[in-house]
């Protein structure tokens, strides 16, 4: 902590190695360690500063996914940190409690950098959420669940056969928080899982092996208005969901990803991993469980606009590899928005490959999916939304950060192979 109360975090980007399976060393990258990064945590109203040191052999960046902050601090492709250099962004946290994350964003190299292990969670709290009866003991009954798919060739994490690479890399198995075959013993009746799809391309449809239902309490940008009963939650790369699951003494259940639909054709589905069934995390309940208070019936008030005060509508057509037929150019700003105004963005996946859509700096409300009310799991603050083949989503967002005509924010497909190919654009707030 600095004299003015600023919370300071140190992150060193470093290379290392890890034995994912006994006796086999794999080259990895991490923050403050061999692989992945620490969970950072701050409270609404906090001033934060992160001192980033890049000890890798190449330049990279650190982007705060989901964070509302000045464009210069965003860690996008314009805030490169050279090998050997340091970068110290600072901002004031001004958004609701949420499970955010951080990862590199060097243009054309993001997929590799994330795959090698540069990713971590950034949790935000606020006064209202601190008072809710939700499981909140970090690592005890409130667990980060960062899901990534991997295939090892023995030595490298970014192993890729490069064959039929339409959506990007699809690993053969998953790891949670960097661990293969993960299990967790829990000793509370209610356990909160902060699910983060930190994979580069894979879409998961999470649920439990015994098909039990669970309660979804938060989307990307924070708590839902009310708890939502679900038995599946689909997350595309970059998306988060917080779920609360009820356990019985001594039982075991497994969080899995199930085959799911929403693809253009059976062929596309197969190619994009839609037929895959994957084990994610086993939960093992202790023989006696601490009783948990009942979940609250109201959670939060959404702060995302509802579209009624949008000053303009814009169209974004997703076609490989660009957006509206144009590929990302570092020196071209694609659009300018006015500070303090809300806009409606219509995003259409114009072909058969799955995509999603992520906007920096803001949280948005999904107004419509194909002209209809969005499914309940999308009725919260979002910064990334799945856009299935031949699907249109309508999003409302407000740009209320500081104006800066010289520093663009990004919007892009978060299937990182597509992002790297140029399915990304830039906007400035003036
Ligand atoms: Cu999670 Cu522009 O990224
Ligand atoms: Cu982002
Ligand atoms: Cu895409």
UniProtKB/TrEMBL annotation:
CDD domains attached to this UniProt entry: CuRO_1_CueO_FtsP, CuRO_2_CueO_FtsP, CuRO_3_CueO_FtsP
Translocase is among the record's keywords: no
PROSITE patterns (UniProt xref): MULTICOPPER_OXIDASE2
Keyword line: Metal-binding, Oxidoreductase
Record-linked InterPro entries: Cu-oxidase-like_N, Cu-oxidase_2nd, Cu-oxidase_C, Cu-oxidase_fam, Cu_oxidase_Cu_BS, Cupredoxin
Keyword RNA-binding tagged: no
Domain Plastocyanin-like: 13-128, 176-248, 315-430
Cross-referenced SUPFAM superfamilies: Cupredoxins
Family: Belongs to the multicopper oxidase family.
Protein name from the UniProt record: Multicopper oxidase domain-containing protein
Lineage: Bacteria, Bacillati, Actinomycetota, Actinomycetes, Kitasatosporales
């Amino acid at each position: 902590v600095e004299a003015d109360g600023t919370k300071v975090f140190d992150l060193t980007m470093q290379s290392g190695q890890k034995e994912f399976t006994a006796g086999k060393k794999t080259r990895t990258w991490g923050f403050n360690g061999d692989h992945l990064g620490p969970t950072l945590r701050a409270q609404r109203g906090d001033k934060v500063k992160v001192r980033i040191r890049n000890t890798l052999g190449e330049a990279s960046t650190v982007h705060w996914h989901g964070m509302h902050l000045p464009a210069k601090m965003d860690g996008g492709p314009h805030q490169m940190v050279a090998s050997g250099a340091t970068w110290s962004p600072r901002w004031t946290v001004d958004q609701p409690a949420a499970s955010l994350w951080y990862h590199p964003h060097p243009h054309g190299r993001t997929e590799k950098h994330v795959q090698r292990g540069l990713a971590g969670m950034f949790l935000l709290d606020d006064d209202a959420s601190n008072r809710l009866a939700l499981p909140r003991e970090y690592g005890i009954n409130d667990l980060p669940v960062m899901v990534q798919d991997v295939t090892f060739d023995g030595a490298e994490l970014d192993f890729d056969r490069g064959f039929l690479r339409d959506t990007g890399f699809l690993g053969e198995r998953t790891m949670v928080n960097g661990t293969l075959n993960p299990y967790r013993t829990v000793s509370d009746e209610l356990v909160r899982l902060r699910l983060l799809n930190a994979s580069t391309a894979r879409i998961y449809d999470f649920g439990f092996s015994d098909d039990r239902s669970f309660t979804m309490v938060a989307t990307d940008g924070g708590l839902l208005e009310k708890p939502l009963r679900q038995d599946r939650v689909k997350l595309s790369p970059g998306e988060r969901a917080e779920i609360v699951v009820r356990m019985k003494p001594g039982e075991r259940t497994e969080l899995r990803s199930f085959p799911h639909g929403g693809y253009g054709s059976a062929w596309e589905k197969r190619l994009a991993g839609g037929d895959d069934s994957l084990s994610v995390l086993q939960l093992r309940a202790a023989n006696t469980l601490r009783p948990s208070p009942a979940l609250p019936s109201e959670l939060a008030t959404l702060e995302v606009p509802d579209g009624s005060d949008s000053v303009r509508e814009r169209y974004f057509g997703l076609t490989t590899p660009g957006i509206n037929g144009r590929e990302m150019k570092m020196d071209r700003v694609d659009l300018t928005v006015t500070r303090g105004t809300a806009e409606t963005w219509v995003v259409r996946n114009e072909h058969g490959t799955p995509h999603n859509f992520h906007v920096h700096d803001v949280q948005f409300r999904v107004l419509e999916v194909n002209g209809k009310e969005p499914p309940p799991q999308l009725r919260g603050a979002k910064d990334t939304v799945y856009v299935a083949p031949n699907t249109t989503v309508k999003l409302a967002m407000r740009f209320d950060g500081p104006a800066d005509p010289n520093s663009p924010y990004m919007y892009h497909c978060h299937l990182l192979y597509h992002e790297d190919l140029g399915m990304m654009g830039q906007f400035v707030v003036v």
